[in-house]
Design goal:
This protein is α/β, with parallel strands linked by helices. It is about 45% helix and about 15% strand. It is built from nine helices and eight strands. About 40% of the residues are buried.
């Protein structure tokens, strides 16, 4: 069928409650007030280091604390799965795509160990043929290199990227790959401002949408 690569946080999973919990435990240890769940969602997307930077800045914590807070954040990430949920319809959509012969990948700015841990938690570790995290390469999204590397690992064939955010849209644009925007995730900009081939709000729309995007290439 095709090679389909997915973003993770805000696309396949809603992990913000777990990430919010990690952040507020770290802030409590520093005697700083908590951030809101909405703030946590807004800080997600550019990787763990940027999340910690935004968290620090929101609470006035100094730059010289960054490395220590980041190390503590990453150390907590692997087991932060209990409040994370799959978006409705994800499992069925992935199963249909696999049955149709699609090769599936994940390209995320989440650290690789944490990525593999949450995929295993949901039994999806065997679903994906290639998985790249935010620390798999020297660069991360919106640099197109991780996305292109994920597709290269899947092999030849038509390519479609599925994500939810401004970062994902820019990554796809730079890579020159059709982008399907999941509108219920963590994006910060209006849909109309993000480059995309099509949008969807429910995963039961995804398979026919992918087929329609691929029709010109068939």
């Amino acid at each position: 069928m095709a090679n389909i690569v997915f973003d993770l946080d805000g696309t396949l999973i809603d992990s913000a409650p777990d990430i919010h919990g990690i952040a507020n435990r770290l802030l409590e240890q520093e005697g700083a007030p908590p951030i809101s769940l909405e703030q946590a969602r807004d800080f997600i997307g550019n990787g763990a280091s940027v999340f910690v930077e935004r968290m620090r800045q929101a609470r006035g914590l100094s730059d010289d604390m960054h490395d220590r807070l980041l190390a503590d954040f990453i150390a907590s990430y692997d087991t932060a799965v209990n409040l994370t949920v799959l978006y409705p319809g994800v499992v069925d959509a992935l199963a249909i795509l696999k049955a149709k012969g699609a090769r599936l990948g994940v390209c995320t700015n989440k650290p690789l160990r944490a990525t593999r841990a949450v995929l295993a938690h949901f039994g999806l570790d065997v679903t994906f043929d290639a998985v790249l995290g935010g620390d798999s390469l020297p660069t991360h999204k919106p640099d197109p290199a991780p996305l292109l590397a994920t597709f290269d690992a899947l092999g030849p064939g038509p390519r479609v990227y599925v994500g939810d955010s401004d970062v994902d849209a820019e990554t796809a644009r730079r890579a020159g790959i059709p982008f399907l925007l999941f509108t219920e995730g963590y994006r910060k900009s209006p849909v109309a401002e993000l480059p995309h081939s099509a949008t969807f709000s429910s995963f039961d729309q995804l398979v026919p949408l992918i087929q329609s995007v691929l029709e010109p290439a068939s």
